[in-house]
Amino acid sequence: MNILITGGAGFIGSNFIIYWLKKYARDNIINLDALTYAGNLANLNSVANLPNYRFIKGNICNSRLVSNIIRDIDIIVHFAAESHVDRSITDPGIFLETNIYGTHLLLKAALKNKIKRFHHISTDEVFGSLLLKDKNKFNEKTPYHPRSPYAASKAAADHLVLSFCHTYGLPVTITNCSNNYGPFQHPEKLIPLTITNIIENIKVPLYGDGKNIRDWLYVEDHCRAIELVLKEGRVGETYCVGGLLKDVSNLAVIKMIFRLLQGNENLLTFVPDRPGHDRKYAIDWSKIKRELGWQPRYSLEACLVKTVNWYKNNRSWWQSLKNRQFQAYFKKQYPDL
Ligand SMILES: NC(=O)c1ccc[n+]([C@@H]2O[C@H](COP(=O)([O-])OP(=O)(O)OC[C@H]3O[C@@H](n4cnc5c(N)ncnc54)[C@H](O)[C@@H]3O)[C@@H](O)[C@H]2O)c1
C-alpha cells in the first residue's frame, strides 16, 4: 500500500510514521512536509534510510506538487497543520491558509486521483469549552463551537472533509483527538515546555489559575486509534479519541512533572491568561471502543515518566529547537517572565 502522510515531520506525524513502518514493513510511505518551525527531520532518523520511506519537502498549498505526488497513492493521512493555539491568536492568517485552504487542495487532489481513503486528523478543540463543573463530555454528536482561530480553522477543515464525502463520495474518515504528549513534541507546548524549562532551571509559565482541564493522550495510543480507523473505520464517520477517565488540571500535570524531575517549584510562575482560553475539554471515546475495540493502553502517570525520561535523554534534540527564534517567541508570549 502507498500512503501519503502530510506533516510527517511534526510531533504526531513522525510518531505515526515510525509506528506504521515498524508494523507494516511492506507499505511505502511518502512524507510531504513544508518543514515550518514545527517540522523536524531529526524525528525521523530511525526510518530515514528505509527504502520504502521517502521525504518530500513541500507545502500542501502547492497544488501542482500535490498532484504530482498523489498519482500512485492509495491512502492519505493528513496531519499537516499549524497547530499551536497561542500562535493562532497572534497570527491567524497562516492557520486559515494551511488548515483550511491546504486541506481543500488535498481533498480536490484526492478526489481527482480516486484515493481509497482520506483520513483527516482533527482535534477536540472544535467542540469549544466545557465548564469545570460539567459532567458531560464531547462526543461525535456535540455541535461544533470553536473558540480560537486554531480551533475554527480545524473545524472548517472538518466540515470541508465531510462535505467532500457527502457531495462527491470521497471516502473520508476523521479522528477528533484530545491533547497528545510524548516524544518529539515541540518545546512550545505545555508538557515539553515545562519539562525542558525545569531541566534548564528557568521559569515555567502557567496560564491563569492553572485550573483548566485537558484530556491527555499518549501519542502512541493516538497512532493506534488512527491505525484502527484506517483498517476498520466506517467511511464518512468521525471518531472521538481521548485518554482520561478523570479530570486532571494543568496545574496538577505541571506539579507531577516537578515531582518527577525533583524540580524547584519556585520556578512555577502564573502568567496572565490566554485570551479566550478554553476552560475544559473532556472526551467520550465510547464510539471507537464499541465499534473498533480501541481504548487507551497507557496511563498518564506511567507515560509522563516515559516522556520526562525521553526529554532528559534527548537534550540535544530539544536544545536545538530552543534557538534564538524560539527565545524571541517565548519573550513575546510571556513578557512577564
Ligand atoms: N498535538 C496535539 O495535542 C493534537 C491533538 C489533536 C489533534 N492534533 C492535530 O494533529 C495534527 C498534527 O499535530 P502535531 O502536534 O503533530 O503538529 P506539529 O505542529 O508538531 O506538526 C505539524 C507539521 O505540519 C507541517 N506543516 C505545517 N504547515 C504545512 C504546510 N502548509 N504544508 C506541509 N506541511 C506543513 C509542519 O512542518 C510540521 O511538521 C494537526 O492537524 C493537529 O491539529 C494535534
Automatic annotation (TrEMBL):
GO terms for biological process: nucleotide-sugar metabolic process. Its cofactor is NAD(+). It is an enzyme of class 4 (lyase). It catalyses: dTDP-alpha-D-glucose = dTDP-4-dehydro-6-deoxy-alpha-D-glucose + H2O. It holds the Pfam family GDP_Man_Dehyd. One of its GO terms (molecular function) is dTDP-glucose 4,6-dehydratase activity. SUPFAM superfamilies: NAD(P)-binding Rossmann-fold domains. Keywords: Lyase, NAD. InterPro entries: dTDP_Gluc_deHydtase (IPR005888), NAD(P)-bd_dom (IPR016040), NAD(P)-bd_dom_sf (IPR036291). Residues 4-304 form the NAD(P)-binding domain. It comes from the Bacteria. Coiled coil: none annotated. Its EC number is 4.2.1.46. The keyword Signal does not apply. NCBIfam families: dTDP_gluc_dehyt. Belongs to the NAD(P)-dependent epimerase/dehydratase family. dTDP-glucose dehydratase subfamily. This is dTDP-glucose 4,6-dehydratase.
